[in-house]
Design a protein that fits this description.
248 residues, 3 helices, globular, eight-stranded mixed beta sheet, mainly beta
């Protein structure tokens, strides 16, 4: 016998709810982006904002959502929508922002802005730093201590060190072994050679792992952003690979 109309309606509603429950729902992170310098943006400047998974120290950040915005000035508000099904409690997520004119990087974030998990909310206020275009002269005679790698905070008792001398000459320590070489440096372009000289001391496992990751990260660097006591080394996509603070 056919179900009474009320019974049919209840079954239909249950089916609909079951189907809706199986669908992923969209979440959103929002915030604003600005910079301190009193510099007018060119009319074709754009803001590029990404929601990233930065959990793995041995791999590049994974982008879950991204959006590009036309700019006429700052501060500017942004909102990124993402698939809730992609978010996991044990993973660390962060917002990264950059301002470009064409393919030229003008400003970028140089600190981590966590969101969503580990007690963080769904908003971020981004303070971008200016990408310095002075080339070799800007880095000459500077010493740096690594504080971040691939978007994650670098937690080690002996962080890698990096120093620049004249004309792109560089040296430093991976935390255990010393290294040196000649970088290809012009404007904001920076590339490290794959045949840099390095000592070959045996290192304790934790230091060896971080050092190997650091040397591998140097090979992915193609440009840099310099602002005051902060130095960010970037890959071909403009993503932060290594973050340093000036060594006092």
């Amino acid at each position: 016998m056919p179900l009474p109309r009320l019974g049919q309606a209840i079954v239909a509603i249950a089916v609909i709810l079951t189907l809706l429950g199986g669908e992923s729902r969209a979440g959103a992170v929002s915030g604003s982006a600005t910079y301190r310098e009193r510099i007018a943006l060119p009319p074709d400047a754009t803001l590029y904002v990404e929601l990233q998974d930065i959990s793995r120290a041995d791999a590049p950040a994974v982008t879950l959502a991204a959006q590009r915005y036309a700019l006429s000035g700052v501060p500017v508000e942004f909102e990124l929508t993402y698939d809730d099904a992609l978010i996991r409690d044990e993973v660390t997520y962060a917002i990264h922002g950059s301002i470009y004119r064409g393919d030229k990087l003008l400003f970028t974030t140089d600190t981590i802005h966590p969101v969503l998990t580990n007690g963080e909310g769904s908003s971020a206020e981004l303070l971008l730093v200016q990408a310095d275009a002075q080339g070799a002269a800007a880095l000459e005679g500077t010493d740096w201590t690594a504080i971040g790698m691939d978007g994650a905070v670098l937690n080690t008792e002996r962080p890698p060190q990096l120093s620049f001398a004249q004309g792109g000459a560089f040296g430093g320590s991976g935390g255990c072994n010393r290294f040196s070489g000649q970088a290809d440096l012009s404007g904001n372009h920076l590339e490290f050679p794959d045949n840099m000289a390095a000592t070959l001391m045996a290192c304790p496992p934790p230091l060896e792992e971080i050092e190997d990751q650091f040397f591998a990260a140097l090979q992915r660097v193609t440009s840099y952003a310099l602002a005051g006591d902060s130095l960010v080394l970037l890959d071909t996509a403009g993503e932060p690979v290594l973050t340093f603070i000036r060594t006092q």
